[in-house]
Amino acid sequence: MHDTPPAGQHPLYVTQPDLPPLADFVASLEQIWDSKFLTNGGRFHQQLEAALCDYLGVEHVALFNNGTTALLTALQALGIEGEVITTPYSFVATSHALLWNRLQPVFADIDPLTFNLDPDRIEAAITPRTTAIMPVHCYGTPCDVERIGAIARKHGLKVIYDAAHAFGVRQDGRSILRHGDLSVLSFHATKVFTTFEGGAIVCHDAATKARIDQLKNFGIVDETTVVAAGINGKMNEVSAAFGLLQLGRVDAALARRREVAARYRRLLAGVKGITPPAEPGHEANHGYFPILVGSSYPLDRDTLFQRLREHGIVARRYFHPLISAFPMYRDLPSAAPENLPQAARVASQVICLPIFPALADEDIARIAGLIASA
Q1: Is 112 domain-assigned?
Q2: SS3 assignment, position 202
Q3: Is residue 163 within 8 Å of 181, Cβ to Cβ?
Q4: How far apart are CA 357 and CA 365, in angstroms?
Q5: Same domain, 215 and 305
Q6: Does residue 73 sit within a domain?
Q7: Which of 247, 268, 300 is the last residue of a domain?
Q8: Which helix or strand (DSSP H or E) is residue 132 part of?
Q9: Do residues 231 and 279 both lie within one domain?
Q10: How far is CA 299 from CA 60, 293, 305, in A?
Q11: Does the pTM of the predicted model rise above 0.90?
Q12: 164 and 238 housed in the same domain
């Protein structure tokens, strides 16, 4: 694996943050410094929660120091026990959050077109110990929320969406984050909206929001009252201030990402054996641009991946290997490869190409040209 590009070239990473002007960020830092209020729900924290509710079109947002802590807390807030059906095709934080809560992940296979949990496989995986479903809106593509919701209601299950990729995604004009009991966002530096590190839980009512806020602050109600074994998951004022600046730029960033994705599609459309993502049938955020390298392409996936790396293009095999292949999961009955044929196939073929607002048209052409020229 070669992360170092040839001499004179800068590497093109799969994603890079869209940074606000330094002067604006310094001005925010000066306000924080003057206030002497660095964390514990300060002014910037409160402003960002309100601004995100407005921008995303949701009722309640609870900010966190990162998306993984938010996932951990979401499971705690709903009192999830026993087994949770989830996807093997995701970043490991999805299932790690289950293990940290002493829950058993049950892996179900994915839909080969959307890369999201297949509702038929979800229903087949339900047992008397199942208490929840934790799907992922993979690459920001919405899950089949209607069918998943119907399955959950039929079997009395909770639904927690790992929406780390789904910031700003809308379907039928409404936020995808409105579905399920809770949705969890990540604001990591690799995401379309970032607070350096950060995350959030989206919920539907004030009582649940109050419960989540207690859990992310050690279970504290007031100076003398602690009601739960909570965690320190609070977002600090510096990250919140950065998020407010980012929010003012996010529409322009999403528009440029849409242009980059469209340009990739045009340039790769005629390359035999390369399958780019279909034009989305929803309001997408274009956070990732995955391609599948099929058997009719002259190079296998890993050889193409290496070729890109050697030219300073830091593509990623998101998600390879499957979560179910890691040692803490591979002995689970649901992790057996024969249980996950679609996920295994996609994981063996996928490469995510660089996509970010500052990616120049000539670099897009260079990347597509390297793929086509093989």
Answers
A1: yes
A2: strand
A3: no
A4: 15
A5: no
A6: yes
A7: 247
A8: strand 130-134
A9: no
A10: 48, 8, 10
A11: yes
A12: yes
pLDDT tens-place string over residues 302-316: 999 999 999 999 999
Mean pLDDT within 112-125? 98
Residue 285 one-letter amino acid: N
Cα three-residue angle 281-285-288, rounded to 5 degrees: 100
- What is the C-alpha separation between 27 and 125, in angstroms, rounded? 52
Domain membership of residue 7 (yes or no) is no
pLDDT at 8: 47
- Concatenating the DSSP letter of every residue in 57-82 gives T-SEEEEESSHHHHHHHHHHHTT--S
Kindly indicate the confidence band of residue 3, based on its pLDDT and cuts at 50, 70 and 90: very low
Query: What local confidence, expressed as pLDDT, does residue 172 receive?
Result: 94
- Cβ neighbours of residue 355 under 8 Å, at least 6 residues apart? 14, 15, 257, 260, 261, 264, 286, 287, 288, 289
Count of helix runs (H) and strand runs (E) in the chain: 12, 16
* Same domain? 188 vs 58: yes
State how far the Cα of 215 lies from the Cα of 293, in Å rounded to an integer: 44
Instruction: Give the containing element (helix H, strand E) for 314.
Output: strand 313-314
What's the domain range around 354? 12-16+250-373
Nearest to 151 by CA among 173, 136, 135, 167: 135
What is the band of 105 on the pLDDT scale with cuts at 50, 70, 90? very high
Same domain, 84 and 221: yes
Residue 192 phi/psi, 5-degree rounding, is: -70, -30
Question: Do 193 and 77 belong together in one domain?
Answer: yes
User: Pairing between strand 158-162 and 182-186?
Assistant: parallel
Tens of pLDDT, residues 121-172 = 999 999 999 999 999 999 999 999 999 999 999 999 999 999 999 999 999 9
Q: Are residues 187 and 38 in the same domain?
A: yes
Which of 202, 223, 247 is the last residue in one of the domains? 247
Same domain? For 174 and 317 the reply is no
Does residue 156 fall inside a structural domain?
A: yes
How many domains are there within the chain? 2
pLDDT at 17: 86
